[in-house]
Amino acid sequence: MLKIVVCDDEAEICKNISLIIERLTCNNKLSKAEVLVCYNGESLLKENDIDLVLLDIDMPGMSGMDVAARLSERKNAPLIVFVTAHDELVYDSFKYHPFAFVRKKYLEEELTQVLMDCKKEFDSRDKYFSFKSGGDTVKLLSSDIMYFEAEANYLIIHIANETYRMRATISGIEDNLKNEGFIRIHKGFLVNQEHIRTLKQEEVVLESGDMLPIGKAYAASAKASILRYMR
Fold this sequence. Notes:
- By secondary structure, the chain is an alpha/beta fold.
- It folds into 2 domains: 2-124, 3-Layer(aba) Sandwich (Rossmann fold), CATH 3.40.50.2300; 128-230, CATH 2.40.50.1020.
- The chain is 29% helix and 33% strand.
- The chain has helices at 11-26, 41-44, 64-72, 107-124, 170-177, 219-230; strands spanning 2-7, 33-38, 52-56, 79-84, 100-103, 128-133, 136-141, 147-151, 154-159, 162-167, 182-186, 189-192, 196-199, 203-206, 211-213.
- It has a 5-stranded parallel β-sheet.
- Strand 6 (128-133) and strand 7 form a beta hairpin.
- Helix 1 crosses helix 4.
- The chain starts with a strand and ends with a helix.
């Protein structure tokens, strides 16, 4: 069961968000969820094991951005969706890597779609990538894979503090993984967008600190995809 926290200082907004979640759950369009309501950031940060936060940006006391910064430090950080009446604050919040934004004036239509996207994200986290490596069969969570690196007729699979080697080409697995958030940024690199921290002019920086080049042939499509994902 998902744990969803709604955080907004406006009780009416919290009520409306909760009703939308309840409706989607009843229609089996969203997984069963425990929904908690907090009216300030301080209360939210007392909660643990959160899967999804629907968070107002502009609140008295601790702002939504301050809360997002604290949440991002957690080992299992939740998905963050900013819900705001101030469109001009959206760009300032990119550095906290929110999953999405919802404008309060379009709450019903935008939140419904975003919650469906959240469901896809949660579902994808349970997908695995299996392959042969040195005679052994290895099974990894797709979400744990940071990137694939081409090396002649082999691929180097990079996860946190560990690598695997398999006989395959990037082109051979690219189509199978594109629906799981992996994008081609270079002829030699296929990257999991979930692990991208910073997009630069000619490279991406991953959460691990690894810096990977963006090839000219892939630059336009890769940058557009990464920006969409970050937003």
